[in-house]
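Input structure tokens:
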């Protein structure tokens, strides 16, 4: 799957939740706040499983209750459909986590 143009990335983001495009770093990212550190780690564990299934892996940063996920296709140095697909899967996991928290 090939590289997406900036226009294609921005169009794709409209179908995602809270993802932002970083044109300088050439990636998309989303930041999620959880109820605490363990909830943040639990989300990252679920993302890790989805990443293994997809054989596609986000860059992840945990700071206490806040998780930042960044996606780009390292081998292409670009954002691709694989990033968009994993972002959509991550959105599902975040939505399910938020539901469980209520
Ligand atoms: C061999 C394996 O398929 C590759 O190294 C995969 C693994 N996960 C990956 N993840 C991301 N984000 N970009 C890649 O180019 C990539 N390559």
């Amino acid at each position: 799957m090939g590289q997406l143009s900036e226009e294609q990335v921005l169009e794709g983001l409209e179908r995602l939740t809270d993802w932002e495009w970083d044109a300088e770093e050439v990636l998309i990212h989303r930041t999620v706040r959880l109820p605490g550190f363990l909830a943040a780690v639990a989300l990252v564990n679920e993302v890790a499983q989805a990443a293994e299934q997809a054989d596609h892996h986000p860059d992840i940063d945990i700071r206490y209750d806040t998780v930042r996920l960044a996606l780009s296709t390292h081998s292409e140095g670009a954002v691709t459909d694989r990033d968009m697909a994993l972002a959509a899967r991550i959105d599902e996991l975040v939505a399910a986590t938020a539901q469980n928290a209520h």
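Residues 6-101 form a domain with the Gyrase A; domain 2 fold (CATH 3.30.1360.20). The chain has a mean pLDDT of 96.
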